[in-house]
Amino acid sequence: MAYVDGSQAATWFMDTERVIATTMACYRCDGCRGLMIASVETDAYPDGDSVNELLSFLNDHREFLRWTPSASGNMGFPDVPEHIAAAASEAYRCAENNELRAAVLLARSVIEATAKAKNIKNGSLADKIDKMHDEKLIREHIKEGAHEVRYLGNDMAHGDFVDPVDKEDAGLVLTLMSEVLAEVFQSPAKVAKARAARDAKKQAAKP
Fold first, then answer.
1. How far apart are CA 207 and CA 193, in angstroms?
2. Cα–chain center distance at 6
3. Cβ atoms 156, 101 nearer than 8 A
4. Distance CA 71, CA 97 (A)
5. Could you tell me the residue range of the domain that residue 195 belongs to?
6. What residues have CB less than 8 Å from 83, skipping those under 6 apart?
7. Which backbone phi and psi does 42 adopt, to 5 degrees?
8. CATH of the domain at 129
């Protein structure tokens, strides 16, 4: 990712307690050559106007950078019901923009929506996850992964925000959420498509 010379910009506004400064710069992807804007909101600007000071400032705040367009903006979940796939993609966008609690909450909701899509609607989320396993919709290790999403998501859902959510935790939650979607929707759909293609070839080969 290369900085585009001369693309830096800054804005600020005053809320009731502090000045909020937004620092932005444009970068070009080394692979696709597309442009992306990195921005961060802080209470200060870079110390100077030089490119090196700007890039150093952004690097110091790299964990809080927002990227536009989002790298996960086009992330898709084929064969997943549209409303569930949209929420899953949104969870990734939240994590990418450091909205980590929102990402975890959405991942938890995606797990629950998945169970409901399979007509498992009664009981707690824990009950629904276990029921998906009982009905052989998910294997044992996927069930355990879904419960891990539930554990962290429960803290958020119940308003327990004492312990912060870090990037690593959020990334793990999203990975486990994706595993559930693959297990319940995507893998069975791939198998069905392969079977249909094989049957079609058999029919075509008949005299």
1. 24
2. 31
3. yes
4. 10
5. 82-202
6. 113
7. -140, -170
8. 1.20.120
Structure confidence by residue, pLDDT tens digits, 119-157: 999 999 999 999 999 999 999 999 999 999 998 888 766
Sign of CA dihedral 152, 156, 162, 166: positive
Gap between the Cα atoms of 8 and 39, Å rounded? 10
What gap in Å lies between CA 79 and CA 85, rounded to an integer? Answer: 9
Q: What is the pTM of this model?
A: 0.66
**Six token digits for residue 177:** 């959420």
Residues paired with 175 in a beta bridge: none
For the four alpha carbons of 181, 157, 86 and 93, in that order, the dihedral sign comes to negative
Contact 82, 110 (CB under 8 A): no
Q: How far apart are CA 136 and CA 120, in angstroms?
A: 13
- Using a 10 angstrom Cβ sphere, with 0-12 exposed, 13-18 middle and 19 or more buried, the burial of residue 94 is buried
User: What is the tally of structural domains in the chain?
Assistant: 2
CA distance 144 to 126: 10
For tokens 């996927």, what's the residue? 142
